[in-house]
Fold this sequence. Notes:
single chain; 12 strands
Amino acid sequence: MHTELQFFEKLVQKLLSAEKTEPVVKPFSTSTVNSDLNLGFQAEGLSDGDWQKLVEDVALNTPRTSSKLFFNQLFGGRQPKAVLGDLLAVVLNNSMYTYKVAGPQAGIEKAIIQETCRLIGYKNGDGTMPPGGSMSNFMGLIMGRDAKDPLVGQKGVSKTMILYTSKTSHYSTPKNASFAGIGRDNIRYIRNDRFGKMEPSHLLESIEEDLAKGYTPFYVNATAGSTVLGAFDDINPIADICEKHKIWLHIDGAYCGAVIFSEKYKHLVNGAERSDSFSFNAHKMLGTPLSSSIFVTKHKEQLVKSFSNEAEYLYQTGAEDYDLGKTSIQCGRRNDALKFWTLWKSIGSNGLEELVDHQFELADVAREYCEMNEDYTLYSFPDSVSVCFNYKDIDPKDLCTKLYEEGNLMVGYGQFKGQEFVRLVTINATNTKEDIIGFFQVLEKGT
């Protein structure tokens, strides 16, 4: 183990150095990557020297998601204290299903859940840390289904149950509807206004139409930070509708739900305390390594009803609240709490607030740059960390693909109401205002 740790340290130093001099690597073709990097297997293992050389080649040719020119996904950057926590979790190698094997690590996860509930306004709430935002949304859907029909867990879905989500919500919703036995055809996609927010009037109209047909509306998925525009649905009017018709309201805050830490921006989720469940990803706005997703609910009893199952061979300490497998979608589960905890403890809630606020400031810099330059057409708006624009009428797909293939920078493109554009996300809190200006300079030079 000592030899491997020495190699790991040297490799990380090389990677960090490469990130500074070559922030983007040219991609291998998918048709040759296996042969170019010798990714296949042979009967005999490699010598230590050949093995180290191969591992180094793979690492140095992997996309650099923490560099100053990675703007492609809804995560980026690297918070050192969180990285340390993740490395420690790997060495400790605890599974999080029982207190017996997790010990204080279970307490760490509970502390994160309890403080998150307090920030949202859930009294006596509870939660868990699923393996990503998609599974957080799945848990909310399952709980809403079970709350509406308590027999469905035993008998199965026996009636037409309808769920509602905006047209710009995350793609996990149709997958989750299929997993849960609801069916993709029983999703109602609610219109968005010009800012990308769900239209409450259309939601109410759709629910009333389904009730008139004898269907069972059971779940509304609202969004705190849509994947393209970064829009926040207006929670209070949606909550009014859900309360009137006794429908479960889940807030998918995977992208931007961390605004709960910011005094300046938490108004974007006003009314969150009225929701039934809420989720956010600490590996997005808060910069912890993938993945670190938090799911909480105000209905602790329903969490147990939907996800607990007796297993005498497993739960043997009588520590009900600390046997986390009883409220999780999984049994064996890696420790995703420690890395967020080491970050949170090191910089405090005020430090997390600064990370969130800084990303909005970077987005303001990007929008201002576009507004001041006649070569850019801006499609974005304030209070979002997604900055959408086009440059010189160049096709956004062609522009992003060229920048990627030539190893200049990584940025993606999106679409809203038929308009395609480049989507810059300022999700990396380690970036500076100068780095954002540098993004545009690299983009312009590469066209």
